[in-house]
Amino acid sequence: MSTIVTVDTVDIRFPTSEQLDGSDAMNADPDYSAAYVEITTDADDGHSGHGFVFTIGRGNDIQTAAIRALSPHLVGRDVEAILDDMGSFWRGLVGDSQLRWLGPEKGVMHMAIGAVVNAMWDLKAKRASLPLWRLLARMSPEEIVDLIDFRYLTDALTRDDALQILRAAEPGRATREAELLEHGYPAYTTTPGWLGYSDEKLARLCREAVADGFRMIKLKVGGDVDDDIRRMRLARETVGPDIRIGTDANQRWGVDEAIEWMGRLSEFDIAWIEEPTNPDDILAHAAIAKGVAPIPVATGEHCGGRVMFKQLLQANALSVLQIDATRVAGVNENIAILLLAAKFGVPVCPHAGGVGLCEAVQHLSMFDFIAVTGTTEGRVIEYVDHLHEHFVTPTDVSGGVYHAPTAPGNGMEMLAASREEYTFRG
């Protein structure tokens, strides 16, 4: 038996605003940041669990404080008992009534729980000597559904529904795992599209994206409609007619403005419009989806939890569902969301802009392909070419695909030297 001995948190911030990397219509000067946690045990195996919450600078101190508030739930606990029942562990953290009051089940406290849950999954995968995607994809359907809290979901997804989905995919798991290892998982890139980039830089990065094998790029929109038209025309002329171009408004508009704006951009054959309005406004998303059709609406990176995703699906408010590895309460809740999307037949194309999100979310998409949906059709993982050098197992993207990681863990462990160099000290 081993026990948890420390829960160490670090406020890590990268000065990405200096080059306007990550800039969009709502976030003009983001500094990609991580409220980082490392969980250590008294076992002699040398393993520790790593997780984080992605933020964009100020406020990261609040997020690290929220993670520290969970220490009493962890220090002194039996590690094996937690790892053997990750569903109960999740429910115990989320069910702390005094901390839950701050959400409930959304926001800073919920994200802090996600960092801790993800760190324990990292530890579990390392102890199994498996990458997280493979650990999850080798669990039985019964073990997978035991991870999920179905409270609030049963009007859309029951335990039996989830088991049916997972059992239907079970026979082809080994074949799909081999296919994933050989061919990778489709990616698209947002690298050319940041709103603060010059036209020259936009065109150059578009050319490089196509040369690198990407079949889809994404541009930020929503600052000025005439500027957006100019940038979209430049991008389309640069990449040609066969490359998909997505757009992302980062919550910029109300309903009427979104419909009108996208009407102006529709001539450029838009792959989707992402986050057109407030992420909590389900009815507005539904109205926009009708108003901009046939342009698909994509959203989800700021959805607080599985209940909001359920409602977006029930309301036909999205055509592309975007999970985020650190916005909800970790792996368990994201699995619930993947199953909801499968039930409704909606493709999942994760959000991965930011520090470490590419490294983290790829595991969830790969698990989805192998054990849930059995397909990559209509599915792509976002890729942004920033800050991968700071991770122990950096994302491997080439030829327009994510190559499946084989190193044990969840991919979220940052190099000790990087943590030390970029710790924010006020």
- Supply the number of structural domains: 2
Residues in β-strands, percent: 5-15%
In total, the number of strands is 12
**What's the alpha carbon Rg, rounded to whole Å?**
20 Å
Largest sheet: 5 strands, parallel
CATH superfamily of the largest domain: Enolase-like C-terminal domain
Number of helices: 17
Mean pLDDT: 96
- N to C succession of SSEs: EEEHHHHHHHHHEHEHEHEHEHEHHEEEH
Strand order within the widest beta sheet = 5-6-7-8-9
Q: Which class do the helix and strand fractions yield?
A: alpha/beta
Q: Low-confidence parts, pLDDT < 50 over ≥5 residues?
A: none
**Level of helix content?**
40-55%
EC number: 4.2.1.68
Cofactor: Mg(2+)
InterPro entries: Enolase-like_C_sf, Enolase-like_N, Enolase_C-like, L-fuconate_dehydratase, Mandel_Rmase/mucon_lact_enz_CS, Mandelate_racemase_C, Mandelate_racemase_N_dom, RHMD-like
GO molecular function, one term: L-fuconate dehydratase activity
Could you walk me through the main structural features you see in this protein, from its secondary elements to its overall organization?
There is one protein chain. 42% of the residues lie in helices and 14% in strands. It has helices at residues 60-68, 79-84, 86-94, 97-100, 108-127, 132-137, 141-145, 159-169, 173-183, 199-211, 225-239, 255-265, 282-292, 306-314, 330-344, 357-372, 416-421, and strands at 4-13, 33-41, 48-55, 185-189, 216-220, 244-248, 270-274, 297-299, 320-321, 381-383, 397-398, 401-402. The chain has 17 helices and 12 strands. The strands form 3 sheets. Strands 5-6-7-8-9 form a 5-stranded parallel sheet. Strands 10-4-12-11 form a 4-stranded mixed sheet, covered by helices on one side. The protein has a 3-stranded antiparallel sheet with strand order 1-2-3. It is of the alpha/beta class and 426 residues long. The relative contact order is 0.15. It folds into 2 domains: 4-129, Enolase-like, N-terminal domain (Enolase-like, domain 1, 2-Layer Sandwich), CATH 3.30.390; 170-421, Alpha-Beta Barrel (TIM Barrel), CATH 3.20.20. The protein starts with a strand and ends in a 5-residue tail after the last helix. It is globular, with a radius of gyration of 20 Å.
